[in-house]
Predict the structure.
Amino acid sequence: MRKFYLLVIVFISFCSFVSATKRVSIGNIVFKNAIVDPDPAPTADFKTLIVPIKRAGNLIVIEASVDTLEGNFVLDTGETYFRNYPKIEDKDVTGITGASAGSFATYVHNFSILDLQYSRLTAQVTDLSFIENGRHMKILGLLGTRLFSKFALTVDLFRNVLYIQKLDKDGNIPETERIYHDRFMVSPFRLLNDVIFLKGEVNNNTYWFAFDTAAETNLLDYKKTKKIMSSMQIIGRSELTGVGGSIFEVIYARFDELIVGDRTFMKNRVLLTSLEKMGNSYGYSVDGVLGYDFFARGIFTINFSKKELEMYIYTAQ
């Protein structure tokens, strides 16, 4: 029986980008009607920042630092997480296996990825020991979409490099800074509660997929896809490890046709399971998740300004 460690975590954090009044606690002290300021913009003294990627199974891991502490962080197109910080607000952290207890919001100061520096970040804290145990690597946190909302991210898993790039006034990567040109797919996306949603088709049926760089395989909700089950080839059953380390069995299947944007992808693999809890935590219904099995087929760029996902053919240039 194959076993997958899947990082699909939804952080329910609706931190406003304008000052807001809310209940905040620091330690045992509770401040009612506290004014919460938005996080300041990062300092980015570069046009293109080149960041080496480590691999932990199918997870994308990069090194970053908090004050003088350096460590490993998972690139996750969701909310941002750090561990071992003072609580400012309780939050719910939910995955497909349910909620993780004891999660809360916090402030992180002096966080940096090489020359990309944040003086303060609002982040979440929860237990990720099940990832560390499965991958035998110390993980200090998850780096979510909000950190990169003013940039374009390009992930090249063939060279194990992450590119963080500034955008011009029109929201494009400047032509002189473009690294890849042989594009074979482009798709618009919706960014809802820090989650990227892509519209796709499976065997002529339309579904909405969460694009998750921390998902180690693709997922489909078995209730919403029952009508296409007959067109799938069942490969077997697998164990899935989710939030809190809980383990349950899922169906592993293959299907022929997945259309995303202007491209058709053949010979697709997917895990069939219930995504109801995940959808509830997003605040939006989710039919499936596109993870490593999808994005590892090429080099991909996420442009948060234009809300576009692009994929490029790998060439040994």
Q: What stands out?
A: Residues 23 and 32 are 5 Å apart (CA to CA).
